[in-house]
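Q: Got a minute? One more chain.
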Amino acid sequence: MVALLVVLTIVVFVAADAAVQWRKSKKEAAAREWADALAPAYAFEGMKAPAGVYLDEGHTWVQVSPLGRADVGADSFAQRLIGRVDAVELPEVGREVRRGDFLFALRQGDRRAAFAAPVDGVVSAVDKELSWRPELVEADPYQDGRVCSINPKNLARDLRLMRVAEEGRDWLKEEVRRFHEFFAARPLQNTPLGQVLQDGGQPTGGVLELLDDATWKEFNELFLRPRAQGVPN
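A: Always. Here it is, folded:
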């Protein structure tokens, strides 16, 4: 009789644990499925790449003026993901940069998205208004979001490494797909976003606003500087 009670007790505990694990896995699967569908649809809706704007693989854009000056900012892909911009770290006028060097950063609280210079040259101007109105980057990254201008040194060579027009738009679509995979692989149960999704909410700002510091660091490494050596965290 005692042996039977022991066996029944074990069976009950095993069944209870199995039920708990099943509910947990179902909840996590539902959250990931929701996130998998939500991330690209929300973050990239209406994303554009204007004609005449060159897109660099570190997610900066370049527009060349008739005098050969290269205006630079963060592209719509990065802007949509970052969302709220609390501060812009501007480069120093007169500073010489090489393609891949750290150029400027967008800050959100203590977190930082660091962008690499898309061309060789000397920083000739910065948009000082961004120092007290960083939200301009959010309004239109290709107009109000110009961060600086560079007098380029190897412009023809550097532009050949970028994408423009239809090629640029196709590349952005591929980057969306790549971010979709990156986002789906995040451990949502350990992030604020996972909790939001499990509770039935939807993000109201950039996707990265709701992710953790480790995700920001990985995003910098994987999306903002694939060839940018020496860019600080």
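A: The domain at 40-228 is CATH 2.40.50.100 (OB fold (Dihydrolipoamide Acetyltransferase, E2P)).
Q: Perfect, thanks.
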